[in-house]
Amino acid sequence: MINEAQIAETLERAARPDAGRIEEIIAKSLEMKGLDSEEVAMLMGISDPGQISALFDAAQHVKDEIYGRRLVVFAPLYVSNLCANECLYCAFRVKNKAIVRRALTQEEIAHETGALIDQGHKRVLLVAGEAYPKQGFQYILDAIETVYSVKHEKGDIRRVNVNVAPLSVEDFKRLKAANIGTYQIFQETYHRETYAKVHTSGQKRDYDWRLSAIDRAMEAGIDDVGIGVLFGLTDWRFETLALMQHIKHLEDTFGVGPHTLSVPRLEPATGADLASHPPQPLSDIDFRKLVAILRLAVPYTGIIMSTRETPGMRKETFALGVSQISAGSRTNPGGYAEDEEMDASQFSLGDHRPLDEVIRNVAELGYIPSFCTGCYRLGRTGADFMDLAKPGDIKAHCGPNAVSTFQEYLMDFASPETLKVGEDLIERTIATMNPIAAERSKTLRSQVINGKHDVYC
Ligand code: SAM
Ligand code: SF4
After folding, report:
1. What is the CATH number of domain 72-349?
2. Which residues partner with 435 through β-bridges?
3. Which residue's CA is the closest to the ligand 2 atom numbered 2?
4. What single string gives the DSSP state of each residue in 126-142?
């Protein structure tokens, strides 16, 4: 699946791209049919400010064409920091004595969920280390059931995505039966030698078991999957071409690529020195190039930006192609209900702002924050989603659903300041939509204003 020699050759060939070729690639990217590895490698090599700005303009254009002005919002829900692995960059690593260990009880998970619902969240990403309390993997299944079961006056969690260690096909089937949205897992590094150096003990040492996890998830019927790289462990250009190979493998084997890509950069983590000294840090400018290149290479795949990054960097990458963001996050189990960041966190955050502030800021930037969970609940996942996304039709669903869920948020949870910014933005956005999307938006919005909740198309 990952051919390191081929990646090295591609990077070598792309080392001296001429200006004409870069122009051609950027022009091709505007057709929104994606780019191949050679083209990606050439774009990664550019450093001329004029070429970089042409790249960013193209990414912004493609992002607007396909996704419109919506940004999907979610929160991570850390249920446990118990872990049997020794990943040298992570605070949850088994030998780390500097953090407080904790696996939330189902009651505590319900409290956490309630706290997220009361902030206005509708989508969570459930996260855990790779060691479960005595119930084993059933603990995660129970946690998902608990999250879905919490109903508050103003809402509930409508989609639970999951980021947990690789499973067998049998366990993936159980995960699917628990009604998850996306199953997400990051290879961390696709570079075998680096992988072995930073994963020194535990099941996670097995590179191939991890790399084949998405294949098993697909075999088990989970067709909505997310992959990613933890940038900073080795050369970002190698990782990006390996990511392209992984995507191609999934497309060739299952007829559909990943639903989302994640691009975390290493952040400092308590008791994990490696995280504070990334072996090959990804600079800010290369990080922005990375997001723009991915947007052009796989135009229909969502790109997720977490609160690892600062508000300034998050803002820049929204324009370049990010389609989903986390907000108001805590990475310690119990962090929402108990409202504190203690020494049980996985890594330090770059964006500490509460949800309402993030939402207001996103809206001020002209993006509609979306809490939509429509596609997954209508069964538009995997290849069905891609079929819809590819001709650009997704805008006709995502736009109106963003409007209705944002309107719901504004009425139920927003501060007066955010409400004002949000209402103005909705008006302005509907005015720029195509007639079908505008009509749908108005209908759904008036249903929400008249007291209906959870309406989507
Ligand atoms: N334990 C499971 C695993 O490793 O796949 C799932 C959860 S793990 C908490 C989620 C992700 O956090 C990891 O895949 C890794 O990419 C990321 N992570 C770990 N340490 C990090 C750090 N110091 N900075 C940024 N991201 C980190
Ligand atoms: Fe455990 Fe995942 Fe952290 Fe590794 S990255 S120590 S597996 S929680």
Report:
1. 3.20.20.70
2. none
3. 129
4. EEE-S---TTTTHHHHH
The Cα–Cα gap between 421 and 364 comes to 7
Regarding the beta carbon of 87 and ligand 2, being less than 6 Å apart is answered: yes
Q: Which ligand is nearest to the CA of 272?
A: 1
How far is it between the farthest Cα atoms of the chain?
61
- Per cent of the chain over pLDDT 70 is 97
Average pLDDT score over residue span 55-61: 97
Domain boundaries, the chain: 72-349, 385-449
**pLDDT exceeds cutoff 60 at 342:** no
Is the shortest distance between the CB of 41 and ligand 2 below 6 Å? no
Ligand 2: distance of its center to the CA of 166 in Å? 12
Question: What phi and psi, each to the nearest 5 degrees, are found at residue 46?
Answer: -75, 145
The yes-or-no verdict on residue 204 having pLDDT over 70 is yes
Distance 130 CA to ligand 2 centre (A): 6
What is the phi-psi region of residue 112: left when phi exceeds 0, alpha when psi lies from -120 to 50, beta otherwise? alpha
For residue 186, which atom of ligand 1 is closest to its CA? 14
End-to-end CA distance of the chain: 37
Supply the pTM of this predicted model: 0.96
The model's pLDDT over 370-427, given as tens digits with 9 standing for 90+, comes to 999 887 787 777 777 677 666 566 677 888 999 999 999 999 999 999 999 999 999 9
Which residue reads 């079961």 in tokens? 149
Name the residue of 85, 188, 346 whose CB sits within 8 Å of the most ligand 2 atoms, as the mutation to test its pocket: 85
What DSSP state is assigned to residue 255? S
d(CA 100, CA 344): 5
Residue 212 has pLDDT above 80, yes or no: yes
Q: Measured in angstroms, how far is the CA atom of residue 12 from the centroid of ligand 1?
A: 31
Give per-residue pLDDT as tens, 19-31. Answer: 999 999 999 999 9
Where are the strands (E) in 295-351, listed by range?
A: 302-305, 324-326
Strand partners, 227: 261
